[in-house]
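Recap from last week: sequence in, structure out.
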Amino acid sequence: MKYCWRMVIVITFMMFLAIASSAPSADQCKKERRLAINACKSVLYGRLPSPSCCQRIRVSHIKCICSVITPKLAALIDVNRFIKLIEGCGRRVPHHFKCGSLTIP
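Predicted structure tokens:
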């Protein structure tokens, strides 16, 4: 019985470390935003996302991107197009998700 509890504690600790180590720093977030902007510039001009843009959408930390969506920026975003682009790249967008000042229906 003691062995089982020790395993649970070790596994829980390992999961905590994995989650904690995946939290991006401010510098990492800044770098991710710059990479996303560079990879997805064509989307701003009405084009479909490139393969490199889709890759960036799939690997970016959502916390890094959402932290800069202000009310002013959110007013410029077509939410339905935003969702289609992200999901078209293979990343799921949950209903009622709040991303900065943007709420997904």
